[in-house]
# Entry
Amino acid sequence: MEIETTQYKHCDLVKVNGRVDSATSPKLAEALTAITEQGRFRIVVDFSGVQFLSSAGLRALINAQKTCKRYNRGEVVLCALPANIAAAVELAGFNSIFRIFDDPLMAVGYF
Amino acid sequence: MPTKTFPGRYSSLADIAIFIRQAAEEAGLEGFAIYAVETAVDEACSNIIEHGYQGQETGEILCTTLTDNKGLTIILEDGGRPFDPSSVPDPQLDVSLDERKAHGLGLFFMRQLMDEVTFSTRGPINVLTMVKHTEHKTE
# Structure
């Protein structure tokens, strides 16, 4: 799994590529924590390059969402979910916890 | 009836996925059904590594696949601590973010994504059998 992070004026874009499973999810959690530790709490996670997402990856996302939404200081949003990933995210009930956008442009524009 | 043994550590998950995807395709599963099987097996193996083997990277996971007219059966065997599925409550999906627990989704995924999930033991060996029916190919 590879992660590229781009800092914009109003948010940070985290582009994830590859498999997010128990082996790799700590790296996703670290990338998200690195952003929030800078005091930045508006995060877009781009899934367009993700082939697989397990509950370990979902855990990293929910923990980041809790951190970002605390004190209403921000939010994690998801974008560009491949069909399989979108189905897993829905099964996990994440549609009520995360805003989901079709593409990174719309997601970044949301902030 | 292909069988393969994988080391009980997280770095095996990608190799297990390749083995399982191939079996699912050979069984005639398609689309999300293949992804569903891959997810269920990944969650099962992650549980074995984390809870069964206590994350100590010892032990192995024996993975057997078999195809019949019902569909694809996957049998995972390990020598770790026994697992009691009744000890894991279903995750609450309709609660607020603050109340939402980060754990408990793995077993939920296995039960939702597979048609049969059976935990048993054979002496000191834990045996997990999961079945995906082929008639659910477009699910």
